[in-house]
Amino acid sequence: MVDVPLGHVGPAHTADVEDVELYHPHSWVTKYVFSQDAKVIAIQYSLTALTVGLIALVLSWLMRLQLGFPGVFTFIDANAYYQFITMHGMMMVVYVLTALFLGGFGNYLIPLMVGARDMVFPYVNMLSFWVYLLAVLILVASFFAPGGPTGAGWTLYPPQAILSGTPGGQDWGIILMLVSLMVFIIGFTMGGLNYVVTVLQARARGMTLMRMPLTVWGIFTASFMALLAFPALFVGAVMMLFDRALGTSFFMPAIVEMGQALDRSGGSPLLFQHLFWFFGHPEVYIVALPAFGIVSDLISTHARRNIFGYRMMVWALLAIGALSFIVWAHHMYVSGMNPYFGFFFATTTLIIAIPTAIKVYNWILTLWRGNIHLNVPMLFALAFIVTFLNGGLTGLFLGNVVVDVPLSDTMFVVAHFHMVMGVAPILVIFGAIYHWYPKVTGRMLNDTLGKLHFWVTFLGAYAIFFPMHYLGLMGIPRRYYEMGEMTFVPPSTHTLNAFITIAALVVGAAQLVFVFNLFWSLRHGRASGGNPWRATTLEWQTPETPPPHGNWGKDLPVVYRWAYDYSVPGAAEDYIPQNQPGAHPATGMSHG
Amino acid sequence: MAVALILVLVALGSVIFHLVSPWWWTPIASNWSYIDTTIVITFWITGAVFVAIVLFMAYCVYRFRHQPGRQAHYEPESKRLELWLTVVTGIGVAAMLAPGLLVWRQFITVPEDATDIEIFGQQWQWAFRLPGPDGKLGITDARLISPDNPLGLSRDDPNAQDDVIIEGGELRLPVDRPVKALLRSADVIHNFYVPEMRAKMDLVPGQVTYIWFTPTRTGTFEILCAELCGVGHPQMRGTVVVQDQKDYQAWLEEQMSRSFARLAPAAQ
Amino acid sequence: MGSILVFLTALLVVAIWWLSRQGVMAKPWLEQGVAADFPVPDNLSSAAARTGLAVFLAVVGSLFALFLSAYALRMQLPDWRDVPLPGILWLNTGMLALSSVALQGARKAARDGEDDALKLGLLAAGVTALAFLSGQLLAWRQLTAEGYFLASNSANAFFYVLTGLHGLHLLGGLIALARTIVKAWRGGTTPEGLRLSVGLCATYWHFMLFVWLVLLSVLAGWAADVIDICRQILS
Question: Is C112 exposed, middle or buried (0-12, 13-18, 19+ CB in 10 A)?
């Protein structure tokens, strides 16, 4: 074990770390449009991602209207329905959650939290946003293309994805989707290089890896995973594009489509699935890990307690990141792959539950004997624990190979992944925005509106997805435009579907309260000062709020302690900022 | 206070919902009750964990809520506690995984006396093939599919001549006899799923997949397609009718006229 | 999926080694102070550039490893027909190797401050790399002339995709090389800056050569035996 030795315990020379060469913008366009400042880029990513999220949210209302009240909304036909579910899924997973956590929160928080002036490759960082925006535009263009967007499901399985029985399959829809994904991946690589290298190289003096807040660890690990996992999607997309447009047979076996034999043969649909899920499984952890990191910081700040078991939290993040690359075929238990793989992947999948469980225990143990302020960010953090726990536990059903057999491709799966990837991380996103809004804008978000938004969202989302598991238990398949006649379910099922739809519409409406709050508080929010939450991490110690270009003014900060000196016995305040020199009595004894 | 209470209500409400809801799986009609048992074990373990953790959280939120003068306890880690929690979690995970893997092994091991049948899927209908008196299913090839040979059987294979072809989506099976369903697709990926049978598996074009099960009670059950296969996916339905051996035999004899040799006489 | 898993395992080993040197086992709440031994990079922008390239190469490596995994899976299916490699590929390989040698020489010249040798090395690297790329295009023409079209067989498709992707990456490298050449000719960059640019190009070139050699051995069928062994272990 390497103990970083105590160095000189007093103010140190700050000029020792060379600054990132900052580009100093002069015009409005270079300041706010083609900006190389990570904070501006972060806001660009966030606003774009939230807008895409609103579109995807509306698509989900349309889907739920059809499921809750089948036959009533005749403009939602089968083609449209499948296009909605595909675009909703792809937008949310890739263009909203990944972009928001990594491009949005990563860009804003990493340089500030590690004490850097900006990202290490600012020009490339700027490009990454515009490439992301291009990817979004290409994706949205498919709504206006002949044949409309693809309706192949966000998983885009061949052969159906490129055949005429699927909307967009023999049209522009699938092509635009694949091209958009490839552009996104290129853009993300540019951004990801920044996030990873900035953490590796641009930390301020005294900021060892183990003094970084868990938010940075979470985003850093997720970025590294994404850099390695997205290429799998890229490979799959290239090959599917070739199959669609150039007549190759990577994934296309000899088939007869609607009575016509196709001029393809020999390809393997399972090859696509392996590639897709090799990306797809790490992807869900790429969304989850930043949420884990952020929620650790929200809980510790608002419970005025160090995060319990910081080291285990770091190791758990890294273990989950690594393990996530060897569980992918749990999405393929009933795919027809070699059945013996089921043993291996079920085991690795249930093993990954262990570091995840440790994180849940440590969040709760941080609350234990804490000093809990039930403000809006803390409320969202608590709700995250409940919903993530619920979603993670249902994952144990699906990960256990034989239990997955009746449950796969049913609404149980839909309920599981929404709870664990939709509800839980989005609650963290909200909590994080309420938490960091004062740093970004200098104002507090309105508290009453925040609590209203919180309760409706948390309880409403739980009411949508918890009962949905039972639809799946009964055997109702997913991706069904309409249930039709199903003799094996009671008639009250339709009532349940209608209830879920109403809940979804109510929760959707509540998001308007949030959007309103975001813009209203820009003008009318209470002035927050630099550190309204009395937090220890570096981003709250900037000389100005909102932080200026270059973040720190003339001198970079110097770091003297870890990120969690809350309620240290004998200290004057219940928090000690990371850049505050001076030792406190060494009471940080670990037990055991 | 209110927050703690609501957390308790969420935990208890979830349990109550589980216990009183009418939305539970349909009664099983196959030998795979072990799957149901494993699911119940999993519900018990995960349910206990969920309730325990949420209630503990509610307690912490109540007991340690901010009050003037309160100071949080400073304790960066407790290796012993974390190790203990890890071990307990490991045991819980193993308790769910072990029965699951045992049943999976059974699931992929077809009994010797299982009868082969073929389930053929295409956009968006089911067809079936029985091996006929010789007990063997003939060779097929997707390239042989044509209007008078919808399942693409090979005319050159003698085993194929007596195969019984059933179109129209109704499969009949004798009760209490294990059956190995060979799954084949003409075009895209489908999935054969009968909720009462619990077993399901994808039909993948270009290969033949399988599941096996033993129907344990008579009745009529719905076949659903459980893998998105285009816009007709929800309409791709069929039925499985499980009959007594006697009734099944009678039905089977009626189907002999639907053998491949009779339906598609070799065009020369 | 063997090749990508092997690649990731190698990266994991590197990551674990690096993390343990960074004190990831430490108890941070016990340390206060500036952590005087914490290694701060002297020159941030060159450290960042080198780390950035390393991470980027991990991404590119992942991309090619995944394509190779796909290749290994696809080649097991019955319709696969190996592509006879056009002879010009060996000449191209020689060109790419020369290119690497030239850049390595340029890197050494930059370190020793030998301006003329540096410029010669950079130009030679550019010319040989262009020769490689044109040779690859010729190989494509040869294959299509012999009837090995993209869509007729997946083995053909993989050939074109793999060589095409490699060529695209080399083209990207040529853009960076061009910028380095401009820097070397125009002057105005510090010696360290020039050394950094040349060094980065050299590393990238060696990596691209390594990728090419792996691709070539797979396409030539030599790696088929390795793949066979892996398959037997896994099934």
Answer: exposed
Q: Which is nearest to A493 in space by CA: A478, A476, A479, A506?
A: A476
Compute the nearest-CA separation of B191 from chain C (Å): 23
Alpha carbons A4 and C31: distance in angstroms, whole number: 7
Burial class (CB in 10 A: 0-12, 13-18, 19+), C102: buried
Read off the CATH number of the domain in which C226 is found. Answer: 1.20.120.80
Residue A338 vs residues A57, A178, A329, B197, C234: alpha-carbon distances, Å:
38, 28, 10, 22, 10
Cis peptide bond upstream of A490, omega within 30 = no
- What pLDDT score does C232 carry? 67
Asked if the model's pLDDT at residue C78 lies above 70, the reply is yes
| Nearest residue to A41 (alpha-carbon basis) of A185, A215, A191 | A191
Q: Select from A49, A78, A76 the least CA-distant residue to A61.
A: A76
* Chain A (88-147) residues lying within 8 Å, Cβ to Cβ, of chain C: 120-121
From chain B, pick out residues whose CB is under 8 angstroms from the CB of A261. Answer: 142-143, 145
Q: Do the Cβ atoms of B258 and A183 come closer than 8 Å?
A: no
DSSP per-residue codes, B190-217: EEEE-GGG--EEEE-TTS-EEEEE-B-S
pLDDT in tens, A243-301: 999 999 999 998 888 778 888 888 899 999 999 999 999 999 999 999 999 999 999 99
> Residue with structure tokens 């992807």?
A283
CA-closest candidate to residue B72, choices A563, A365, A577, A210: A365
* Euclidean distance between CA atoms A70 and A81, whole angstroms: 11
**Residue A29: phi, psi to the nearest 5?**
-65, -40
Over residues A84-119, the pLDDT tens digits come to 999 999 999 999 999 999 999 999 999 999 999 999
The H-or-E segment that residue B166 falls in is: strand B164-166
Looking at the 3D structure of chain C, how many domains does it have? 1
Contacts of C176 in chain A (CB under 8 A): none
Q: Which residues pair with B220 in a beta bridge?
A: B241
Residues A147 and A176 sit within 8 Å (Cβ to Cβ):
no
Task: Look at domain A3-13+35-249+267-591 and name its CATH class.
Answer: mainly alpha
Omega prior to A546 cis, within 30 of 0: yes
Instruction: Give the 3-state secondary structure of residue B127.
Output: strand
The pLDDT confidence band at residue C39, using thresholds 50, 70 and 90, is: low
- Indicate the DSSP class of residue C42: S
pLDDT of residue C234: 59
Peptide bond into A277 cis (omega under 30): no
Which pair of structure tokens corresponds to residue A107? 């860009």
Rounded (10°) angle between helices A424-441 and A447-474: 160
pTM above 0.90, yes or no: yes
pLDDT in tens, A486-522: 999 999 999 999 999 999 999 999 999 999 999 999 9
CB neighbourhood size of A504 (10 A): 23
Is the Cβ of B68 closer than 8 Å to some Cβ of chain C? Answer: no
- pLDDT tens profile C177-200: 999 999 888 887 888 889 999 999
Q: Give the domain extent around C76.
A: 2-234
**Torsion angles phi and psi, residue A211, rounded to 5:** -100, 0
Q: Which residue of A9, A235, A268 is in closest CB contact with C32?
A: A9
> CB contact, 8 Å: A560 with chain C?
yes
**DSSP secondary structure string, A249-291?**
-SS--S-EETTEE-S--S--HHHHHHHHHHHHHHHHHHHHHHH
The domains of chain B are located at 2-65+80-108, 115-267
Q: Which of C29, C41, C43 sits opposite A588 (nearest CB)?
A: C29
Q: Let me know how long chain B is.
A: 268
The pLDDT of residue A389 is 97
Q: Determine contact, residues C33/A11, Cβ cutoff 8 Å.
A: no
Task: For the domain covering B115-267, report its CATH number.
Answer: 2.60.40.420
Percentage of chain B with pLDDT > 70?
98
